[in-house]
Amino acid sequence: MKKKHRTLGRPRKEHGEMPTEDTILQTATAMFLQKGYPLVSMDDVAEKCNVTKATVYYYYKTKAELFTDAMIQLMTQIKQKSAAILATNEPLKVQLFHIAKAHLEATVNIDITAFMKEAKVSLSEEQVGEMEKAEEALYSELEEALAKAMSKGEIPNNNPRLTALIFINMLTVRNAMNEEFKKSFTTTDKLAKHIIDFYWNGLAGES
Amino acid sequence: MKKKHRTLGRPRKEHGEMPTEDTILQTATAMFLQKGYPLVSMDDVAEKCNVTKATVYYYYKTKAELFTDAMIQLMTQIKQKSAAILATNEPLKVQLFHIAKAHLEATVNIDITAFMKEAKVSLSEEQVGEMEKAEEALYSELEEALAKAMSKGEIPNNNPRLTALIFINMLTVRNAMNEEFKKSFTTTDKLAKHIIDFYWNGLAGES
Amino acid sequence: MKKKHRTLGRPRKEHGEMPTEDTILQTATAMFLQKGYPLVSMDDVAEKCNVTKATVYYYYKTKAELFTDAMIQLMTQIKQKSAAILATNEPLKVQLFHIAKAHLEATVNIDITAFMKEAKVSLSEEQVGEMEKAEEALYSELEEALAKAMSKGEIPNNNPRLTALIFINMLTVRNAMNEEFKKSFTTTDKLAKHIIDFYWNGLAGES
Amino acid sequence: MKKKHRTLGRPRKEHGEMPTEDTILQTATAMFLQKGYPLVSMDDVAEKCNVTKATVYYYYKTKAELFTDAMIQLMTQIKQKSAAILATNEPLKVQLFHIAKAHLEATVNIDITAFMKEAKVSLSEEQVGEMEKAEEALYSELEEALAKAMSKGEIPNNNPRLTALIFINMLTVRNAMNEEFKKSFTTTDKLAKHIIDFYWNGLAGES
DNA sequence: GATGAATGAGCGTTCATTCAT
DNA sequence: TATGAATGAACGCTCATTCAT
After folding, report:
1. C82 vs chain D: nearest CA distance in angstroms?
2. CB–CB of C141/C83 below 8 Å?
3. How far is the CA of D37 from the C1' of E13 (A)?
4. Is the pTM of this model over 0.90?
5. What distance, in Å, lies between the first and last C-alpha atoms of chain C?
6. CB of D69 within 8 A of CB of D76?
7. Is the shortest CB-to-strand distance from A121 to strand E under 7 Å?
8. Could you read off the pLDDT tens digit of each residue along chain C, which spans 207 residues?
């Protein structure tokens, strides 16, 4: 079984190359999103990064840690994007539309909840804790925006936390569509609009 | 864990026992729902059923087949329950409330879509096909009920397929709740009511 | 996993059907010759015989026994055919030609020695003994014919046992041919003739 | 058998040890020759090499690959030995005698053809191809020597390919001998001489 | 900083065999 | 006579992890 022998020692960094640690995290994130925690092996990650498994372990003590780091980074990014959108002066409905569009346009379909669930069995309590904190931050962002809109009377009063969760949840509805039905929405914009309309109406009712 | 050494060969038939084949399917269903396809091993299933792995294979040729059979049975059951509820004379909103309650009361949280995704890599095309058929049947039931309600003017016109998917999808919102927030809904009824109210409002808007 | 349920109890024997025991032995023989001992499973045999594995075990206590019985029967048959040919009045060379032809025409290529070797690991000493007896009988037949020919002066004196073994051995030469070379012998007759000519010349020399 | 628990991770390199990869190949070759492809398990190989199965897989991706590599190496070695002998100035008969002796002196009895057959089911087309190439090289060597001898008039004209195959094939005749008969040849020399005499006579005849 | 070599545990699957019916 | 149900032991293979270099 012939192996490509890489040269030993620290490789000269080529111009514009990402540090190995980041490459690994980036690559791993994409792979986890695509196939889910159990179906991504450390070997897979290493191969795709063009390093050896041992190198991956050099930067991340365990697979669980790699996953945790990857997910936290991802959630933080999402949170920041959402925050940026929610910080604008546009009306809430428009802001939500932009968030929805951003989600739907991401190449991989993220259903954070489903993801976590399948990984949690393998994580340490501490790791679960860290991830939940990041998840929490993500939800809080939205929750606060909704709460503010309620207090301003922009939308009727309702449970802001629940409605935040419902919003994130609704963005995963596309995962349940079969190919044919998916095609009936010619652009992401149209699907986003449908979802936001429905959501906005949902918010509209007193409860 | 002590290994109970059972005797070789065909065991003496005891009365009142569920047939092994059913025990396995039941147990497997619960386990798959709890941990997801990749994290449930045939050994796990066997142990929980108090039989050996070979026995599991006696009834189900492969893990993929066991999964397929389990999921189809599950979806068929859900479909039948939904169908029964939708066949009553109660107004649609009440019917949806009952369906939601039934879902939320099931011990295991079902997010069929997430499940399928992680399993699909391991299934044959035929198996995926079978499961999609069962999934389809499940959605169609609801879709038709919604379409009928629209044509009767009970709710405004909207995409019945999309709204059906949104409904099923919303039932999984609880998965995203942390323990604390979950406790804020003292009964399943209350959570179901919140969800249905939101959903019904969503349906209410013209689009 | 649906199984074809056969009716319980003794099945009515259809006109012209072989007794189950014989069917199994016949089928097993063919399968062992084709694939070798380790690659034929009791399940395979059962399926091809249209009975259950338990039925095979009803007639043959173990796989090793089934193999032993099959091989002994086979060798006995071959011996009898050889004996019949050697009992004719034709000259030895013609007789050998007929034996060679019979071997080469058998659909499956028999290399008894190679066969035994791969099976012997799994057989009991007693079983090995039985098979060697049958093998011995097979070789003796030929050995005696050769010895007689030598004493009659039909061929020069030589080690009759060794020459018998060489004869049987030479019949397996075809197994080593690649497809292309095999085709260069348009008929079995031609190949048999080549082999016999070579062999006869070999016998011809004094030693 | 006590399990020697070796330490995890990369072992300290001791001097003068054969590289693990070679140990495995050597050991595997011997085992395959002794028991045949199906009866040698990767566990067996590993145990005999004093490494774990995982180590075997570290060097050889599959069992089929291990087998292929082992057989090719073996055939190449045999070919080289034969080539060396055939390159000498001695008369062909003497050369053949030396080849026969070398074969018969090898601890393991090689019947390549029988081997391949039982392994082929498990090999990829590519692997079969590689092995057939090595086999071919082995036969060609001899075939050419025979052809040259024929054109020089050292032996009568005959099918050089067929006679080459017969030669290799005859070297396996010892496999068919029972213990008693084997003992009647007090030295390998004597057996080799018998075989070569017979073979040479066979070659001698016109055809 | 990065690698090559090795492990132990587990996984999906097969198989010879056993036993009550 | 023949079967259906079950077992225990292997088998080929993968994977997360470890450690010397």
Report:
1. 18
2. yes
3. 19
4. no
5. 66
6. no
7. no
8. 544 444 544 455 555 678 889 999 999 999 999 899 999 999 999 999 999 999 999 999 999 999 999 999 998 998 999 999 999 999 999 999 999 999 888 766 678 888 788 888 889 999 999 998 998 998 999 999 999 999 998 999 999 999 999 999 999 999 889 889 999 999 999 999 999 999 998 877 654
CA D99 – CA D106 distance, rounded (Å) = 11
Closest CA to C25 of C76, C66, C68: C66
Between A and B, how many CB-CB pairs are < 8 A? 123
For chain D, domains (ranges, CATH) are 20-59 (1.10.10.60), 74-204 (1.10.357.10)
B13-32 residues near strand E (Cβ < 7 Å):
13
Contact C33, C110 (CB under 8 A): yes
Q: Tokens 């999309």 appear where?
A: B162
**Closest chain A C-alpha to D61 CA, distance in angstroms:** 7
Q: CA-to-CA distance for A14 and A11, rounded, in angstroms?
A: 9
Q: Nearest-CA residue to the C1' of F15? A: A41
D11 CB closer than 7 A to any strand E atom: yes
Total count of residues recorded for chain B: 207
Rounded to 10°, the helix B20-35/B42-49 angle is 130
Q: Is the CB of D14 under 7 A from strand E?
A: no
3-state secondary structure string across chain C: CCCCCCCCCCCCCCCCCCCHHHHHHHHHHHHHHHHCCCCCCHHHHHHHHCCCHHHHHHHCCCHHHHHHHHHHHHHHHHHHHHHHHHCCCCCHHHHHHHHHHHHHHCCCCCCHHHHHHHHHCCCCHHHHHHHHHHHHHHHHHHHHHHHHHHHCCCCCCCCHHHHHHHHHHHCCHHHHCCHHHHHCCCCHHHHHHHHHHHHHHHHHCCC
List the one residue out of C193, C189, C161, C191 whose CA is nearest residue C176. Answer: C191
